[in-house]
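Hi team,

As requested, here is the filled-out complex form for the zinc ion run. I kept the field names the same as last time so the parser does not choke. Let me know if anything looks off before we queue the next batch.

— J.
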Amino acid sequence: MSNWFEKSAFEIREAVAGGTVTAREVATSFLDRIDAVDEKVGAYTQVWHDEALAQADAVDAKIAAGKLVGALAGVPISLKELICTQSGETTCSSKILAGFQSPYDATVTQKLLADDAVVLGKVNMDEFAMGSSTENSAVQKTSNPWDLSRVPGGSSGGSAASVASATSAISFGSDTGGSIRQPAAFCGCVGLKPTYGRVSRYGLVAFASSLDQIGPLTRDVRDAALAMNVISGKDPRDATSADLPAEDFTKKLGDSIAGLKIGLPKEYFVDALGSEVRALVEKATKVLEDQGAEIVEVSLPHTEYAVSVYYIVAPAEASANLARFDGVRYGFRHPDAKNVSEMYVKTKSEGFGEEVQRRIMLGTYVLSSGYYDAYYLKAQKVRTLITQDFDEAFKACDIILTPTTPSTAFTMGEKSNDPLEMYLNDIFTISANLAGIPGISLPCGTSASGLPVGFQLLSKAFDEATLLQTAHCYEQHADVNLGIPNL
Amino acid sequence: MEYEAVIGMEVHVQLNCKSKVFCGCSTNFDAPANTNVCPVCLGMPGAMPVLNR
Ligand SMILES: [Zn+2]
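And here is what came back:
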């Protein structure tokens, strides 16, 4: 008797479509697992028991009737709180959207349902995706399943914690500056941020529109490729989605990487990088070298400006995107205001948490007249330089390899009083968002204290196939198997 | 003192279109209340405008 919650999405889909197990049995296994362990982990903000079973039954009925089923038939998934779903609530883990029911499904939600995935519920995040530890959630705390006193990373911390604790086979998060890859590294799972424009953002509550991208957190690389097959593609409702022919992201899995050039950017192997992480990332590089990859040194000279640029661009866009939460049309409205102006002020002051308010103010400041040229315009220019760094580097290599994070998961509260130190968690991940290129974080071992360590692979825009091929090759030959933590 | 005249004009025109500029909703006058609306023109969280062709 196998526990279905331990299986990969690929194995589950094969078994369900092949009739060895029913989607209901699989869903029940995961729901029982949630009931057993999520009280400790706190990944889920909403669990949709009845609805998940109804979806599973619908998949089983399709199979019984001999109908074709989708690419994620019977695969239990979870969605980050900012992906719109007609079912349940879409709160962005914020008080200002507490109880908010979206009148429509995000394009990604629609695609997942159309491919017969079973949605178990929604998972926690830093409020409006602003944070690196999920401690900024207004709903609840989420723990790292490997050490409950530590953070799961963020902002897609609920997604990573859920996949790591085997309470969903795939979780869909979003990545604006590392929000998929950093929690994946902290929790020991695979996290992919696709190329900007690869996946529709329609129905993803916007944080920074020029940086946001939805992506999967999974147990292995094949599942990430499988998920990409379902969610990517042009969407007429998202003008920034790329109009490219449909692609099978699993097609290069298993192909040799002999002759592939992998670049190590010297600017990433800096003092801030912990020695344990550095050693494991170097070991990972060796695994790829042993498979025939050629390791070359590359330079991304404007790396040191990435965090500064990000904390101008992202808050600027956030301040515009979050202006709509004014208490008038939806969400929280302060009940005790004498006039409209007081209503706005009280609603925003009480509805938004501290970090969100900080970023709205920062963004409003850098966009304000008199400061726009000095900050926002300047940041946009440096952003172009960072993009050009990657264009240059990719002339000398096919893939860039870096650490995902400077350190392993930190303890709760350790960095919550120091926003700057928290921001530095994303120094290795932010550049990919600024340049719009895809990145994946993969587990490459554990620290002496038993915490997962991840490393990152980056590729040219829209070359997810090579990215996944390289990641899969590593996974097949690395002998890194973290398993499922004891909970 | 020399002055350079800079003249800006803000023009409000009702376009002769069958649908709204950022979504596919009808601009039909006199329709029942709350029928010619969608997540985009209501500015719902996550909705994105797409310029009409
Ligand atoms: Zn409309």
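Two things worth flagging: Chain A has a mean pLDDT of 96. The two ends of chain A are 20 Å apart (CA to CA).

Thanks,
J.
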